[in-house]
Every structure is written in C-alpha cells, then in structure tokens.
Amino acid sequence: METIEIVAIAASIISLLFAAFLTSTVIKKDGGNEQIRFIGNAIQKGAMAFLSREYRLLGIFVVVMAIILAVFIDFDVLDRLTGDSDGVPGTAIAYLVGAVGSSLAGFIGMSIAVRANTRTTVQAMEGLNPALRVAFNSGAVMGLSVVGLALLGVTLMLFVFNNDTSIVAGFGFGASSIALFARVGGGIYTKAADVGADLVGKVEQGIPEDDPRNPATVADNVGDNVGDVAGMGADLFESYVGSIIATVALAAVGATFLGGDSNQLDLQLFPLLVASIGIISSIIGTFLVRTGEGADMGRLLWSLRTGIFSAGGLVLLGTAGLVISLDLDFNLFWVVLVGLVAGQAIGTASEYYTSYEYSPTKKLAEQAETGPATIMIGGLGLGMISTVIPGLVIILGMWISYELADLYGVALAAVGMLSTLGITLATDAYGPVADNAGGIAEQAGLDPEVRERTDALDSLGNTTAATGKGFAIGSAVLTALALMAAYAKVVNIESLDIMNIRVLMGLIIGAIMPFLFAALTMQAVGRAAYAMVQEVRRQFREIPGLLDGDAEADYARAVDISTTGAMKEMVLPGIISIVVPVLVGAVLGAEALGGLLIGSIATGFLFAIMMANAGGAWDNAKKYIEAGHIGGKGSDQHSAAVVGDTVGDPFKDTSGPALNILLKLMSIVALVFGPLFVAM
Q1: Lower Cβ count inside 10 Å, N or C end of the chain?
Q2: Band of the pLDDT at 305, cuts 50, 70, 90?
Q3: What is the pTM of this model?
Q4: Start-to-end Cα distance in the chain
C-alpha cells in the first residue's frame, strides 16, 4: 500500500472517530419531558420505517444492477471490451460497496438527526448558543461520516483493485444511483407531507405551522429527516466520491497535464491527500462555531462562516505544503484555491438571493401585498436571474483551472471545492434539526421564546441549505465535466463535432433530460401531496373534536400515505437516468453519448440553480413576514407567501437538488458503459 493511501485511510478513520465522539456529546444531552420524548419517538419511528422500506426496495435494484455489470462489463459476454476477464467481477463488487456506503451515509445522518431534534428543543429553552451547538454537532456527525466513509471507500477500492479506475468507477456508480433514489424518494415524501400540512392547516383552516391538530405534522417532521438529512447525506457522499474518482481517472488515462516530471501515481493519488487535509481542517473548524444570545441573522451566518473559512484556509496551507513536499507543479495549489473560491462565490450568491437579510428576498416578500400571483411571478424571476453569477463563476473557474492544469485541473478544482465538505455539510444538515426542534416546541406547547430561538436557527438553516445546494450543484458541474473528459479518453474521442448529426441528436436529448426529470419529480410531489391533502381534510371532517383540540389526529395514517407515495413515485425518474444514457450510447454511438452529457450539464446546471434559489427565496420571504414584517402571521400577505413557499418546497427540496445527482449519474454511467459503444 502506498504511503498516500495509508494517510487517506488514517484521515478517514479520524473523521469517523470524531463523528462518534460528537454523537456521544449529542446523545448525552437531555431528551426532554415525556411530551417532548413522545413526539420525538413518533418522528424517529416514522423515519426509520420509511428508510427501511426504501432500502428494501433499493436492495432489489442494486442486486439486479450488480448482475448486469458483472455480465456485460466484468465478464464481457458481448465480447466488446479489450483485455481478458480475471474471473473477478470487480466492477460489480465496487458498485455494491459504493451503494452500501451511500446508504450507510444517509442512515448515519438520519439516525443522529432524529435524536438531536428533541435535544435541540430542550437546549433552546436555555439559550440560542446551546441549541446551535447541539444542532450543528448533529450536522457535523453526518458531514464527517460522509467524508470519512467516502474517502475510506475510494481508497480501499483503489488499493484492492490496483488503481484500476475502470473498476473503481463502479464504486461511484453505486454511490450515485443510491443517492438519486434517496434524494428523489425522500424529497417526494417530505414535500407531500409539507404541502399537505400547509395547504389544509395554514391556508384552509388558519391554524399555526406544526400545530398538533394537523394530521400531517408528524409526517412533515419525518420528511425533514428522510429528505433533507438522509437524502442529502447520500447526495453529498456521491458528490465527494465522484470528484475524487474523476480526478484519479483523468490522471490514470493520461490526461494532458501530467505536471512535467511529476510522478503519474502521485497525481492519481493527490486528490486523496487534498481530501485528507480537508477532513482534518473541517474537524478543527467545528470548534469555532459559536454565537451569542439574541444574535440576528447576520451574526448567526458569521458564526458558521468562521468555521468554514478557517477550514478553507487550513486546506490551502496543507495543500501548499503537499505540493512542495511531493515536488509537484505548484499550479496544482492554485487549482485547489480556484475550487475553494468558486465554491464560496456560488454559495455566497445563493445566500444573497435567498436570505431575507438582503434586498432580493425582502422585495419578494413585498410582492405578497398584491397576492399569490405576484409573489409567484417574482420568485420565478428571482430564481432565473440568480443563475447568472453561479454560471459566470463556473465558466471562470473552468477557464482558470484548465489553463493551469488542463482537464486534470478542472477535476481537481471540484475536489478543492468539496475539500471542506465535512463542515460545509454540517452547516446544511443542522437546518432540518432546527426545523424539527421548532415543530416539537410548538406541538409540546413550550414557551413562545423557545420557538423564537428555533425559528432563528431554522431561518439560518434555510439560507445555509440554499448555500449548500448551490455549492453542491457547482461542484456537480465540474465533476460531471471531468467525468465526461474521462469518458472521452476511455472511448478515444478527441473532440465532438456539433455538426455531426448524431452528436447534435445526443445534445438535444441531454438538454431534454433535466426538464423531463424535474417534470416527473414535480408531478410526483403533486400526486402524493393530493393524497395527503385529501387525508388531512378527511380527518378534520370525520374525527369529532379534532379542530377543537379534543381529539388526537391519526398521524400514522398520514405517515403511511407519504411513504407509499414516495416508494411508488421515485422509481421512474431513477430508472430513466440510467437507461437513457445506455440507450443513446447503444443506438447512436459513443459520440452521441458525449453530446448527451454536454446538453445535460449545460441545461441541468442552470435549471437546478434556478429551482433551488427560487424555492429558498419563497421560503424565506414567508419567514420574513412571519417575523413581523409586511403584515405578519395570519395576514393576507402571509397567506400569499405560504402559497409561494408551498410551490417552492418541491423546487428546492426535491427536483432542484436531485438534478445535480442526475448530471453526475449520467456521466459516470457513460464512463462505466462507454467501452461497450466504442466500435458502434
């Protein structure tokens, strides 16, 4: 085993051990009184029931796909690949390990989140900082578990299969396929519950958010955990894995930049070292997240930024030292810097367009004065204009990193962008915990001051979630481009001629895919939400005394409706994401598949940014009004903002974040299956 691989494994283990330590600190906190514990247990049981059903369904898919990989790739029954099989289905094995790793990342994140919910509520009774620390530490558990498991998995696969990136790509395929299903399934679940709760409870009946009389309340709380935590954990796991594999693959296939006299193996393994430094830096950064009582949104944001920026600075210092000690081209340091800066720029742009600290969301809230129609129009326009800065940042980042280190540099920039994922994911994952804590406080009838503190953390969580989604989408573009470049090398494509009719056909098909995928997921949320709305209305109508608070809602029925809807609706979007690239490659050839990747990256990137930021802006416009502005809670303006938020929820939590997985999944499917299409 190479020294670099040993270092990467050591960093992975440190990450997992620290995550275990943070878990113990969270679990040791007071779980609350009997009422708080009862609500927390209901959420926990619902989340575990959903994940159990989802993983059983996905298990069937994973086994079938592993068999397909073994037959067509490892044993080459079509006799299309060069080289002889050694009798070991390496790609299939790597795929299974990647699928298990992605599933485990989501499971760990959700397991700590459902336990941190109640403890954050209790700590909010004491003050803002204690609540922030518990919620943030739970997010850090997932962040550090994700990077630890991802780096450990990739490193072990490289070692076991002797740095054969064609096999290790199977690991990324397994991670991506599970991530897509988890994101889509969890997103459909949570938004069906959320939309049902809001439309019937807040809009029709005029009862507060998270009111225990609302049958969809517990399902909504469960959804925060299965969609925004478990789904997100699997999502970022595959992002992290994909960026590393893309960089390793480009070095392995002899990308243009090989650093002059640099050792090729060092270049292959260099991203493992950057990731290792990022892990240690993220751990240090977690200790710097603090805030004071009565902090406003700006101060809360800076409490998180302090940790993130500090981690980024440490990554740069460590990378500079590595480049010098390994005698590599110093341009690699600048590439990592470009990735980090680009990630922060995209995140900051998302923050500007979604936080009510800034004018775009405040102006959007003002449009509620004239009703739901104008706030819908304003939100769509805001989402569209918000694509400009991230788009320009990605263009500039691609240009600079390419000039510095060619295609290898583009891939390494994505690794740099995600190097601090351990802490950036923590700032994203804590948001659902704070949201649930507020819901529990409302349902348990705690002092309004407690809800005010959790609402402050929740609003911050919405902003950091939008930032995190922008960050994830930006890294997805660089990773997908790098994977596409690796695919081109594998199938011996020097360039793609857009005047070639097959390339043009593939490009248009690729451009269609994000719209088709988003349409399927949005419609899925609509159908599942319809069933939830009907059920909530039924319970209000048929359970005597429910609206008066004299009877208990049937929470279990609402949870089951969301679960069933998600299981049913997540299959088709996931299947077409894998089948379409394979069909295009098989029918139209390798160059058409390259065109498909270009088309999907171009449209999918901007569409995902638009959906994520529009949804985040609608959500925070509602919260801005709820904070006492423009009429406050219960006003006509608030009702209009709720409608915007209801539409924005599947934008930002289902379709938008799943699109970045779509881009990488189709790219890695192309990389894995590409050699089958070379001679066609």
Answers
A1: N
A2: confident
A3: 0.87
A4: 39
pLDDT tens across 277-301, in order?
999 999 998 888 766 655 555 676 6
Closest CA to 323 of 342, 339, 336, 312: 336
CA distance 11 to 18: 11
Taken as a whole, the chain contains a residue count of 680
Residues 6+ apart with CB under 8 A from 207: 201, 213, 214, 547
Q: Is the pLDDT of residue 248 over 50?
A: yes
SS3 460: helix
To 10 degrees, what angle do helices 90-124 and 128-160 make?
170
One DSSP character per residue, 482-524 reads HHHHHHHHHTT-----TTSHHHHHHHHHHHHHHHHHHHHHHHH
Which token pair is 38?
């009862």
pLDDT digits (tens, 9 = 90+) for 131-167: 888 888 888 898 899 999 999 999 999 999 888 888 8
Alpha carbon distance 382, 391 (integer Å): 15
Query: What tokens appear for 308 in the block?
Result: 């993130």
CB 40 within 8 A of CB 51: no
Spatial distance between the Cα atoms of 470 and 485, rounded to a whole number of angstroms: 23
Cβ 235 vs Cβ 150: under 8 Å: no
Question: How many Å apart are CA 236 and CA 292, to the nearest integer?
Answer: 30
Tell me the two tokens of residue 269: 């393994």
Taking each helix axis from N to C end, the angle separating 590-626 and 501-542, rounded to the nearest 10 degrees, works out to: 30
CB 565 within 8 A of CB 572: no
Integer Cα distance of 296 and 292 in angstroms: 9
From the CB of residue 258, how many other CB atoms can be counted at a distance below 10 Å?
A: 16
Q: In this structure, what token pair is assigned to residue 490?
A: 């594998």
Out of 148-152, 460-464, 640-644, least confident range: 460-464
Q: Cα Rg for the chain, rounded, in angstroms?
A: 24
User: Residue 208 gets which letter from DSSP?
Assistant: P
Q: What confidence tier does 70 reach under pLDDT thresholds 50, 70, 90?
A: very high
CA distance readout (Å), 270 to 62, 207, 328, 610, 664: 31, 55, 10, 34, 21
What's the rounded Cα separation, in Å, for the pair 367 and 370?
6
Average pLDDT, integer, range 393-405: 92
With a cut of 60, say whether residue 262 has pLDDT above it: no
Query: Measuring CA to CA, which residue among 244, 109, 237 is closest to residue 176?
Result: 237
Rounded distance, CA 574 to CA 569, Å? 10
Burial degree of 53 (CB within 10 A; 0-12, 13-18, 19+): middle
pLDDT band for 680, please (50, 70, 90 cuts). Answer: very low
Q: Where are the alpha helices (DSSP H) in 161-201?
A: 165-196
| Residue 12, H or E segment | helix 3-27
